[in-house]
Amino acid sequence: MIVAVASGKGGTGKTTVTASLAVTWPGPVMAVDLDVDEPNLHLFLKPDISGIETVTIEVPEVDEEKCTYCRACAELCQFKAIAVMGKAIMTFPEMCHGCGGCMAICPAGAIGVTTRELGVVERGLARDLIPCVTGRLRIGEAMSPPLMRHVRSHMRAEAGDADILIDAPPGVSCPAMSAVADSDVIVLVTEPTPFGYYDFTLAVEAFTPLGKPMAVVVNRAGLGDERVYGFCAERGLPVVAEIPYRRDIAEHYSKGLVLAELDGELSARFGALSRTLKEMAKEGGHA
Ligand code: SF4
Ligand code: SF4
Prior knowledge:
By secondary structure, the chain is α/β, with parallel strands linked by helices.
């Protein structure tokens, strides 16, 4: 089963919740960081890295000796990654999505293939127990979905019997939607502040059409107001855990330590949350 931990905005505590779930999960679990723009789950779980794989995408390389400047490729490309101006043709690899359309359509066989590096996938083991997979986008690379697809295609094969915990990108854009697409349960982490509330409502609106069970974790509970709770009640969303707004929690987090290990009460709280989510995933998805 797959549990995706998401949030309407960054900084809500999504990653610290994912790390705490990983160390309290009832049974084998794999931790996957799909927040490829800014992966930081490893800062908490501190896996020993055993492998780094470079992920590339195929982009066109034009042989101008063969090109007849017919423009078929430029007219096909929806991403304006290839352009023909008179007797000149240019490619823009950073804008290419690697669909291969231009290569297939070129009547002169003038388009070959080269590659562009998207980023890397790191694999490791935390605490000699928890397999960790991290997608890390190359600095300057704009397109995260192809790298995320690569990570997702491998995680199922490599997880074996283990459940999968996904640390999803924040927000509701394409990467966030793609990160939760395979999940059996979506955990939405929010905070009861005006910004937290607003972005949380956007996330609920975006994820609801997916038809997946959703559960809410309120971080920094005690800060702000009650609007998050009111919205959850209105939408029938269960608030499955609260993390109190406390100085010692903030200090623990700032040291890169796992919140569930701060004290016995938090450990029990995350243990209960893990069991609740596992039950929800069993009921709502495929165990
Ligand atoms: S489709 Fe082929 S021949 Fe036509 S402009 Fe593009 S590269 Fe040149
Ligand atoms: S591979 Fe696809 S996205 Fe890239 S330039 Fe060709 S048509 Fe455009």
